[in-house]
Amino acid sequence: MKSLTVIRKYYYHYANNDGEGGQHFNCLINMNKMRRLRRNEYHDKFISWTKDVLIDDNVPHDLFKKGVERCSGFDYDSKDLPILVRNSRYSSLILSALKNRKDREKHYVVQKYLIENPITNMVISEIPIWSLRPRVGHMDLISFEEGAPSIVIWDYKPNLLGNEKTGLGQIQLYQVMLAKLIEIPVTEISCGTFDDKAEVILVR
Protein backbone atom coordinates (compact mmCIF):
# COMPACT_ATOMS: atom_id res chain seq x y z
CA MET A 1 0.00 0.00 0.00
CA LYS A 2 1.34 3.42 -0.91
CA SER A 3 1.57 6.30 1.53
CA LEU A 4 -0.55 8.97 -0.16
CA THR A 5 0.10 12.65 -0.90
CA VAL A 6 3.54 12.50 -2.47
CA ILE A 7 4.40 15.93 -3.86
CA ARG A 8 6.66 16.07 -6.92
CA LYS A 9 8.95 19.05 -7.58
CA TYR A 10 10.73 18.96 -10.90
CA TYR A 11 14.15 20.62 -11.29
CA TYR A 12 16.27 21.20 -14.37
CA HIS A 13 19.73 22.12 -13.09
CA TYR A 14 23.30 22.56 -14.38
CA ALA A 15 22.29 23.89 -17.79
CA ASN A 16 24.50 26.31 -19.72
CA ASN A 17 23.55 29.92 -20.47
CA ASP A 18 21.43 28.74 -23.42
CA GLY A 19 19.44 26.42 -21.19
CA GLU A 20 21.02 23.30 -22.67
CA GLY A 21 23.00 20.37 -21.26
CA GLY A 22 21.30 20.30 -17.87
CA GLN A 23 20.13 17.41 -15.70
CA HIS A 24 16.62 16.47 -14.64
CA PHE A 25 15.79 15.88 -10.96
CA ASN A 26 12.51 14.64 -9.48
CA CYS A 27 12.20 15.70 -5.85
CA LEU A 28 9.52 13.49 -4.23
CA ILE A 29 8.13 14.73 -0.90
CA ASN A 30 5.95 12.57 1.34
CA MET A 31 4.50 15.10 3.77
CA ASN A 32 2.10 12.59 5.33
CA LYS A 33 4.99 10.33 6.25
CA MET A 34 7.04 13.25 7.57
CA ARG A 35 4.25 14.26 9.92
CA ARG A 36 3.64 10.66 11.00
CA LEU A 37 7.33 10.01 11.75
CA ARG A 38 8.17 13.38 13.33
CA ARG A 39 9.58 12.99 16.85
CA ASN A 40 11.38 16.20 17.78
CA GLU A 41 12.12 19.85 17.07
CA TYR A 42 14.72 18.93 14.42
CA HIS A 43 12.11 17.06 12.41
CA ASP A 44 9.84 20.09 12.79
CA LYS A 45 12.57 22.38 11.44
CA PHE A 46 13.16 20.14 8.45
CA ILE A 47 9.41 19.96 7.72
CA SER A 48 9.14 23.76 7.89
CA TRP A 49 12.14 24.18 5.58
CA THR A 50 10.68 21.66 3.14
CA LYS A 51 7.40 23.55 2.99
CA ASP A 52 8.82 27.08 2.92
CA VAL A 53 11.70 26.44 0.51
CA LEU A 54 10.98 23.35 -1.59
CA ILE A 55 7.19 23.23 -1.82
CA ASP A 56 6.80 27.02 -2.02
CA ASP A 57 9.48 27.22 -4.75
CA ASN A 58 12.12 29.27 -2.98
CA VAL A 59 15.11 27.21 -4.14
CA PRO A 60 17.88 29.52 -5.49
CA HIS A 61 17.92 27.91 -8.93
CA ASP A 62 20.38 30.49 -10.27
CA LEU A 63 23.11 28.80 -8.20
CA PHE A 64 22.58 25.47 -9.99
CA LYS A 65 24.28 26.37 -13.25
CA LYS A 66 26.86 24.74 -15.46
CA GLY A 67 30.38 25.04 -14.07
CA VAL A 68 29.37 25.61 -10.45
CA GLU A 69 31.31 23.66 -7.82
CA ARG A 70 29.35 20.48 -7.09
CA CYS A 71 29.47 18.32 -3.99
CA SER A 72 29.85 15.24 -6.18
CA GLY A 73 33.28 16.52 -7.20
CA PHE A 74 34.44 17.00 -3.61
CA ASP A 75 37.82 15.26 -3.22
CA TYR A 76 37.97 13.85 0.30
CA ASP A 77 39.99 10.94 1.65
CA SER A 78 37.37 8.85 3.43
CA LYS A 79 39.48 5.74 4.09
CA ASP A 80 39.84 6.49 7.82
CA LEU A 81 36.19 7.38 8.48
CA PRO A 82 34.57 5.10 11.11
CA ILE A 83 31.62 3.18 9.68
CA LEU A 84 29.00 0.63 10.65
CA VAL A 85 27.95 -1.91 8.00
CA ARG A 86 24.60 -3.68 8.39
CA ASN A 87 22.09 -5.57 6.27
CA SER A 88 19.78 -3.50 4.09
CA ARG A 89 16.44 -2.93 5.85
CA TYR A 90 14.61 -2.46 2.57
CA SER A 91 16.21 -5.13 0.42
CA SER A 92 12.94 -6.63 -0.84
CA LEU A 93 11.54 -3.21 -1.79
CA ILE A 94 14.69 -2.23 -3.66
CA LEU A 95 14.77 -5.53 -5.55
CA SER A 96 11.08 -5.14 -6.43
CA ALA A 97 11.70 -1.61 -7.69
CA LEU A 98 14.57 -2.78 -9.88
CA LYS A 99 12.59 -5.75 -11.20
CA ASN A 100 9.77 -3.44 -12.33
CA ARG A 101 11.88 -0.49 -13.53
CA LYS A 102 11.41 -1.16 -17.29
CA ASP A 103 13.30 1.64 -19.06
CA ARG A 104 13.23 4.06 -16.14
CA GLU A 105 16.39 5.33 -14.47
CA LYS A 106 17.59 3.09 -11.62
CA HIS A 107 17.99 5.79 -8.97
CA TYR A 108 14.54 7.20 -9.67
CA VAL A 109 12.62 3.92 -9.34
CA VAL A 110 14.40 3.00 -6.09
CA GLN A 111 13.76 6.44 -4.62
CA LYS A 112 10.10 6.38 -5.69
CA TYR A 113 9.46 2.97 -4.12
CA LEU A 114 11.09 3.97 -0.84
CA ILE A 115 9.31 7.33 -0.61
CA GLU A 116 5.86 5.97 -1.47
CA ASN A 117 5.95 2.86 0.69
CA PRO A 118 4.61 3.44 4.24
CA ILE A 119 6.91 0.85 5.88
CA THR A 120 10.08 2.84 5.17
CA ASN A 121 11.43 5.88 7.03
CA MET A 122 12.41 7.61 3.77
CA VAL A 123 10.48 10.88 3.47
CA ILE A 124 12.00 12.87 0.59
CA SER A 125 14.27 12.32 -2.42
CA GLU A 126 16.56 14.36 -4.71
CA ILE A 127 16.75 17.28 -2.32
CA PRO A 128 18.66 20.30 -3.65
CA ILE A 129 21.39 21.53 -1.32
CA TRP A 130 23.56 24.64 -1.57
CA SER A 131 25.90 26.99 0.24
CA LEU A 132 26.88 30.57 -0.44
CA ARG A 133 30.39 29.51 -1.51
CA PRO A 134 28.64 28.58 -3.91
CA ARG A 135 28.66 24.79 -3.79
CA VAL A 136 25.62 22.77 -4.75
CA GLY A 137 24.32 19.22 -4.97
CA HIS A 138 21.31 16.93 -4.71
CA MET A 139 20.88 14.49 -1.83
CA ASP A 140 19.40 11.14 -2.86
CA LEU A 141 17.17 10.52 0.17
CA ILE A 142 16.49 11.61 3.74
CA SER A 143 14.94 9.50 6.47
CA PHE A 144 13.42 10.40 9.84
CA GLU A 145 14.66 8.15 12.65
CA GLU A 146 14.02 7.78 16.36
CA GLY A 147 16.78 8.76 18.78
CA ALA A 148 19.78 10.87 17.91
CA PRO A 149 20.76 11.72 15.26
CA SER A 150 17.19 11.68 13.99
CA ILE A 151 17.77 12.91 10.41
CA VAL A 152 19.81 10.68 8.08
CA ILE A 153 21.03 11.57 4.59
CA TRP A 154 21.26 8.53 2.29
CA ASP A 155 23.11 7.99 -0.97
CA TYR A 156 22.10 5.04 -3.16
CA LYS A 157 25.27 3.20 -4.23
CA PRO A 158 24.70 -0.03 -6.21
CA ASN A 159 27.38 -2.72 -5.64
CA LEU A 160 28.21 -1.23 -2.26
CA LEU A 161 29.92 -4.21 -0.63
CA GLY A 162 33.64 -3.95 -1.25
CA ASN A 163 33.28 -0.20 -1.78
CA GLU A 164 31.84 0.71 1.60
CA LYS A 165 33.54 4.10 1.95
CA THR A 166 32.85 5.33 -1.58
CA GLY A 167 30.96 8.64 -1.55
CA LEU A 168 31.07 9.18 2.21
CA GLY A 169 33.07 12.40 1.87
CA GLN A 170 30.40 13.81 -0.45
CA ILE A 171 27.47 13.07 1.86
CA GLN A 172 29.42 14.26 4.90
CA LEU A 173 29.60 17.60 3.09
CA TYR A 174 25.82 17.41 2.57
CA GLN A 175 25.50 16.86 6.31
CA VAL A 176 27.29 20.11 7.16
CA MET A 177 25.45 22.11 4.49
CA LEU A 178 22.01 20.84 5.51
CA ALA A 179 22.65 21.64 9.17
CA LYS A 180 23.40 25.24 8.20
CA LEU A 181 20.37 25.54 5.91
CA ILE A 182 17.82 24.31 8.46
CA GLU A 183 19.72 25.76 11.45
CA ILE A 184 20.19 22.68 13.61
CA PRO A 185 23.34 21.17 15.18
CA VAL A 186 25.33 19.07 12.71
CA THR A 187 25.37 16.30 15.34
CA GLU A 188 21.62 15.86 14.82
CA ILE A 189 22.22 14.69 11.24
CA SER A 190 23.89 11.47 10.17
CA CYS A 191 24.66 10.06 6.74
CA GLY A 192 25.12 6.77 4.98
CA THR A 193 25.03 4.78 1.77
CA PHE A 194 22.92 1.78 0.79
CA ASP A 195 21.93 -0.73 -1.85
CA ASP A 196 19.78 -3.88 -1.87
CA LYS A 197 22.30 -5.79 0.25
CA ALA A 198 23.80 -3.40 2.79
CA GLU A 199 23.69 -0.05 4.57
CA VAL A 200 26.84 1.82 5.56
CA ILE A 201 26.46 4.39 8.35
CA LEU A 202 29.04 6.98 9.27
CA VAL A 203 29.58 6.79 13.05
CA ARG A 204 31.18 9.22 15.46
Please explain how this structure is put together.
The structure is a single chain. By secondary structure, the protein is of the alpha+beta class. 28% of the residues lie in helices and 29% in strands. It has helices spanning 31-37, 41-55, 91-99, 106-116, 168-182; strands spanning 6-13, 23-30, 69-70, 83-87, 122-131, 135-144, 151-156, 189-194, 198-202. Helix 3 (91-99) crosses helix 4 (106-116). The longest helix is centred in the first third of the chain and has 15 residues, at 41-55.
Compose a concise summary of this entry.
The protein is an alpha+beta fold and 204 residues long. It contains five helices and nine strands.
What's the rounded overall pLDDT mean?
Answer: 94
- Give helix % range: 25-40%
| General shape | globular
Number of strands: 9
Give the SSE order as H and E letters.
Answer: EEHHEEHHEEEHEE
* Ends distance: 36 Å
**Strand coverage percent:** 25-35%
Structural class: alpha+beta
CA radius of gyration is: 16 Å
Number of helices: 5
* Major sheet characteristics: 7 strands, mixed
Q: Detail the poorly predicted runs.
A: none
Number of domains: 1
Characteristic terms for this protein:
two-stranded antiparallel sheet, globular, 9 strands, 29% strand
Sequence-ordered SSE layout with sheet pairings:
Layout: E1 6-13, E2 23-30, H1 31-37, H2 41-55, E3 69-70, E4 83-87, H3 91-99, H4 106-116, E5 122-131, E6 135-144, E7 151-156, H5 168-182, E8 189-194, E9 198-202
Parallel strand pairs: 3-6, 7-8
Antiparallel strand pairs: 1-2, 4-9, 5-6, 6-7, 8-9
Helix pairs in contact: 3-4
